[in-house]
Amino acid sequence: MENSEQKAKTAETLLEIRNLKTYFKINGSIVKAVDNVSLKIINGEILGLIGETGCGKSVLGLSILRLLPENAKIEGNLLFRGKEILSLSKAEMRKLRGKEIVLIPQNPSTSLNPLMQIGCQVLEAVIRHHNLKKSEAVSKVLDLFSKLKLQEPPRKFRDFPHQLSGGMKQRVLMAMGVACNPKLIIVDEPTKGLDAVLRIEVVRMLKETASAAGTSMLLITHDFSVAAALAHRIAVMYAGEIVEMGKTAAVLRNPRHPYTAGLLNSLPGKGFNPIPGSSPSIISLPEGCRFHPRCSRANMKCTASHPELVKLNDDHFVRCFNVCF
User: Fold this and answer.
1) Which of 1, 39, 138, 201 has minimal CB crowding within 10 Å?
2) Cβ pair 73, 243 in contact under 8 A
3) C-alpha–C-alpha distance, residues 224 and 267, integer Å
4) pTM exceeding the 0.85 threshold for the entire prediction
């Protein structure tokens, strides 16, 4: 009975996004950065969100946290543990951020305060969200540094960001992210700009962090190898839309959308055959399927009609009139 209850609890939906639209008004034009996106993340799951630069994946992450400029307009539903995020007050949202949902940004060098010791920066997050004495909070930070393999934690606590390597800064951001035992971590391009050795190390740290705490993650990346190593499911984004979504193994072994197949074929191990053309401007999107100007399978229907995201089976969805088989 206990096992059944535990499984049911584990399978509960943590985050549900329904028909999310995030638009920006810039110089009289409407920029459709995120357009009618729907997806779910369950407890303990890592969902990989993959796409080229400018496809809207980072904007999606910031929309969940409501960290957008004033010219942004969000419509749809963002349900976190059944509660509508978009209806929360600013004070309620501040309480949610950093405690239950955290962001690990993509650039550690610009995300840390250069004038503040790194230990104090992590300590600030711990004290803000936990009712701990300062000595207890310091012990928690040192323990986190040790778990994330920051050597000599007491000395590292006193270091400033410029004294750390890129990999060490990434560890500090991760410590800040997990310090408050969040339910959901949004990780934005964690391996961008890192060499192969550091990429492997960051992937290992993310995997251990998620596994140890049972934390859910939205993994935003352009790197299929990172998603393959970490994600349970993958959602592929193009020009503001989800074009394919399914279990990681199924998407990687048998991609159904021509864009997903093209991304995989452009990898060095697959022959390094880049997709022709470039992504469309989200200010001026093509009629019909947004991928049709670059697609070898496109026909008249693709240029005239916009495909919906349809279910191929229980776990696989695709937005295409000419699904790959």
Assistant:
1) 1
2) no
3) 9
4) yes
